[in-house]
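Spend some time on this chain, tokens included, and walk me through the fold:

. . .
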Amino acid sequence: MQAARHSYKSPVRPVIYGRESVPSYHAGLFANLKDKLLIQGEETVVLDGIFYTVAELEEIEKGLDEESWQNHVIIYNNKGLLLFLEEQVVDTDKLNAAYYYRFKPSFVQFISPFFAQVFYSLSLDWLRSNLPSLCKLMDFTGFVALADAQQAYEPLRSYFRSLQEFAEGLEWDEFVRDETVLAFIFSPYWRELVNKLPPALESSRIGMAESLLSLAKRFEGNATPAYLQELAASLKGLQLPVVLKEEIGKYAYSLSRYNAESFKVVKKRGSNPSFYVIAGLACFFGILLFTYFNTSRRKNNA
């Protein structure tokens, strides 16, 4: 389910309209908003570029409890959160200013359903078109509570599941027809994204790495050792369980040893001039003998 744009609208804005500061919570704080804000006969009012309908104002008039009001005020006063929830804008500097509130459990529980909806929408879009921005967004998964993780991370989960299935089914003939299909592995932004996956997606990171390691082993004998070594080096840069990290390290080491030994053999053959001297002399004497016997035969025939 994709999040609706502007799913969050701050109730603070209409309440403080015409006031110099945000008032403390008290009885009657939300009364008569429609009468104060709506011109007679109008169905909506625009405040700071955000539309409020009659129904939305009526909902606010029913009142909020004190804790909810305080949480809405926190969002309103932290413009990074407000921009994110209302306009789906990721301003990292302003969001970082609200860093402290990620460690306030009651606030995270409150903001999480709204935050998860926007996170879903942005990640769905940016997975296809903007990995650098998505990597920045991953720094703020602390505002998503466990109860909303399924919804928030569904695009990421589906993306890595499809990549894993693709890697498991990719054959060498398909790869050589279009080698760019594995280019994502070497992208620093892709690796950064994998490393920033939240704990709820740990299995996606592990499954992806295992599939790519298996693919590298399947391609042995076809792909060059240098290519496989680069692939292994990329996997080594991922944050993985110790056992899997060690397995990748051993595989990368075996490839580096193979390359080193191959280089030594080539160098040994190429650096020994005696082989070429002997081969040259053999050819020379062979030509002399051939010429001698050929000349002798002609004299005898004559």
